[in-house]
Write a structure and sequence with these properties.
mainly alpha; about 80% helix; globular
Amino acid sequence: MASFILRRLLVSVLIIIAASFLMYMLVAYSVDPLKDLRDSSSPNKANLINARVELLQLDVPPPLRWLFWLGGAAKCLIPFANACDLGSTISRAQVVDILPLALGSTVQLVTLALVLAILLGVTIGIVTALRQYSGLDNVVTFLSFFLYSLPAFLVAVLLKEFVAIDFNDFLVNPVIQWWVAALIGLVAGLIWQSLIGGDMRRRLTTFLVSGIATAGVLMLMSATDWFLHPGLGPVVMIILVAAVVVATTALISGLQNRKALIAAGINGAIAIVCYFALQPLFDVSSVATIVILAIVAIAVSVAVGYFVGGYDRGQNIRISVIVTIVSGFLILVDRFMQAWPTYFDDTNGRPIATVGSSTPGLEGDIWVTGLDTFTHLMLPTIALLLISFASYTRYSRAGMLEVLNQDFIRTARAKGLPERTVVVRHAFRNMLIPITTLVAFDVGALLGGAIITEQVFAIPGMGALFNAGLARGDLNPVMAYFVVIAAMAILFNFLADLAYAALDPRVRVR
């Protein structure tokens, strides 16, 4: 393992050095950082040109300039030395000072889009594989190819027009007409009956129950002004946590496993108690408080799963942790919803943002500022998510179908194992192997797509830094963008290699 890591690190360093040289030469010979000054009518134009030439060392040949830049970039690898030097911009700002702000916005955006794309894409891909050639499978296949073919800028513009602007207009008078609720209920019924499956009677029952329930909930939300004063409330929270307990246990171990169900139930009960007990603390909480509460909650869930025990403590611990994480997420969602009226008033009734990464001058607690971050990142995240979601759905469906036709799956079924065990414990792990490769490549693709998305939504991230630098001939910000992208792409490919060994015992890294 150690020799493998060293070899990969050495190869990665050589790749970055060679690629940085090519990138530096292409940009240096294709753009003119003095163009705006040459076209200027300023009386001291000559002095300004000389100052910029001295600042950016433009009197030095580009290959030699690249060596100077490489030496400064190499200092970034020295820990705790604070000697990192990536040069300065045309406006005399140090790149190392502006890079963390831009990187933070982009990483926040891309990470959320990547995680959601993996979770939703893999889940729906597995479901469609298990419902091969069904109506749901055909619809998801059509949507996947349609979304995959859409350019990022078009998705972003459509989201701004038909989601942000229309929803803000809807909030002026948030009343849902009965026919709109009926139409949404019809679509929901069709989706749920495809997911549940079964004979015609079961499908019809699922369609009617889910459709009527969806339409009824929408009409209730409209009648109670829920869109202006949202919240889950104690009753809904108890129902949702109970559903999480049952669903997690059924999926991972089966409801016949009494100890797993008890462990999940204990963690669900603890979550409900915390929901009521922590409300006063949430009013004065900070990010550090939430992090500490999360660590304590996970530690308690691990302890519950361990001490409830049984023949499979590891499985019970996993169930306990999942129940705790999902229940904690629901509690936080409810608390953010409680802050919605305040945020709604602070944004003058137009809460869904279309530009920027935050509202200028907005002040408030972590719940208000958290909502502000969410509303600004929601549309660009969806834009990136839809395109990545399509590829994950296709790959996971194809991978699951391939694994389900393997001999060891037939053997598992022949031994009488439940279908849940066959899919979750045997097929799912093997299906993830090609997905790890896709994730490694998708990081670079998402960052590339983020350039366009950040431009449309005016987010001051890495894409904006790259665009501005390339447009002005400002080489150092462009190279900073390249270094970050290259390092992340190589890092995720390295992690993918390690993931192969974890998912497939036949793979060994030496």
